[in-house]
Amino acid sequence: MKAPFSGADNTRTTLEFPMTASDARRWYALALLCLAGFMVILDAQIVVLALPSIASDLGFSASGAQWVISAYLLSFGGLLLLGGRIADLLGRRRVFVTGTLLFGLSSLLCGFAWAAGVLVAARAVQGVSAAVMAPSALSILLNTFDEGPERNKALAIWSGSGGFGATAALLVGGPLTDGLGWQWVFFLNVPVALLLLALSPVLLGESRTRTRARSYDPVGALTITAALVACVYAVVEAPGAGWLSARTLGLLAGAVLLALLFVRIEARSVAPLVPLRLMRSRSLIGGNLVVILLGACAFGMSYTLSQYGQAVLGYSPLVFGLANVVMPAGAVVGSYAGQALVTRVGARPVAMGGLALVGAGSLLLAGVPVDGGFVRDLLPGLILFGPGLGACAVAGAIAALTGVGERESGVASGINTAAFQIGGAFGVAVVTSVAVSYATGPEPLAALTAGHRAAFTACAVLAAAGLACALVLLRGPRRRRPERPETAVTPTAPAPPSRSGRTARPSPRPAPASPTADGP
């Protein structure tokens, strides 16, 4: 079935569905798309457990190992908007299938990596393929389900698949690393990718947006990605080169110049990746800054916790993964509770409360000793961190997407998704840099623990910065003003008769505006 749609901006969306709107197979299509989203999030998290084994086998340095995570997150977050643009113009199903094929091949290369540089390069390719898969899968979902309750239900299931992927990473990563080797955390993606490739032509419909002139804005995408890489590389190398060294300051200055160049490119582009009019939205800016800092806390804490649990406490990946399921499970609970609270009190209080829990959990973890135990030293912090993470993620997303028009909804969603991934890359770089700087002393385990304590403290500082952004940039709920008694009972004069002889009804007073979640 084809359904062309012509817009005022000389664009036309052509839909080709292999099923009717009432066909039950669209739920199977949703399951397939959620499997793809699950795999993308699983791959981002599962490597955290296997990283100590990877670093030992391939000879990564203490600061170099984090690039196994950051290479994926940077290419994923930096190219996510470009991936969505390509899917819109070339066909969403076609681009989804291409990204899935590339993801499977790059996973094979990761598993067979024989050197540190090869693994980092393969992880970057994985991030590129994920940046193609994720936005095209979400676009297919939106074109498969009609707007209304069914689409809302489908989006809720799609969002839940990400949380389930993060939880499954802790459950599956440990057994794979212990039993079969770290290579299998990457080989696991291959059969999933083959299943997606086999079923996509059967279950997924094709759709695309046709314009008079195709414009992908690759220069803008590459410019902002280069700015992010320069910034993260400067932070990672700062402990060795010096924070005030010419190399560190030069890289940071280069990142700023590239970011300014990106703004100039977007201002002159016919079809920019990020329309600059969106940057005038205080809620969008504040919500995404909160999400960036939350992502930095989440990935930074997970990375540090894995290093401490396996390198200092001596936990195996299996035992450590099973023990830490409490954190992502708490995040799922916090996300559902946060969604309900946002409708009652607004996004700002929920975001601030979530970040307060994240910061408090990080501070509890900052006191870990050399001879620590899970129940005594780790569990209290994780119990606070998990719900705070889930609640703040929901509040930040709602704040960032509130008031965005329909035409900009895809771009705004892409920015919000990219914000968490980019924040994660920055957070891993920050905690690695801090840990290396403070890991000093004659006793190796004591030095490692000192570095980890400093890294957990850095996570608390990031949470405090996010809390400040939420307080200043997010708007609180609009409160209903109480009516004055004299205005509520003011009598109205009799209306003059109309030409027909009937008395005209007086115009009713407009009702006061109802309170919204995030204000105007």
Automatic annotation (TrEMBL):
How does this chain sit within the bilayer?
Multi-pass membrane protein
Classification via PROSITE patterns? MFS, SUGAR_TRANSPORT_1
One term of GO molecular function: transmembrane transporter activity
- Which residue stretches, if any, does this entry annotate as coiled coil? none
- So which residues are the signal peptide here? none
| Main location per the UniProt record | membrane
State the superkingdom.
Bacteria
The record's subcellular locations are: Cell membrane
Q: Name one GO cellular component term.
A: plasma membrane
Q: Which InterPro entries match?
A: MFS (IPR011701), MFS_dom (IPR020846), MFS_trans_sf (IPR036259), Sugar_transporter_CS (IPR005829)
- Tell me the GO BP annotations in alphabetical order: response to antibiotic
Question: Low complexity composition bias: which ranges?
Answer: 487-506
TM regions (residue ranges): 27-52, 64-83, 95-115, 121-142, 154-176, 182-204, 216-236, 242-263, 284-306, 318-338, 350-370, 382-405, 417-439, 454-474
Give the residue ranges for region: Disordered: 480-520
Sorted UniProt keywords: Antibiotic resistance, Cell membrane, Membrane, Transmembrane, Transmembrane helix, Transport
* Domain Major facilitator superfamily (MFS) profile span(s) in chain numbering: 29-478
Question: What is the name of this protein?
Answer: MFS transporter
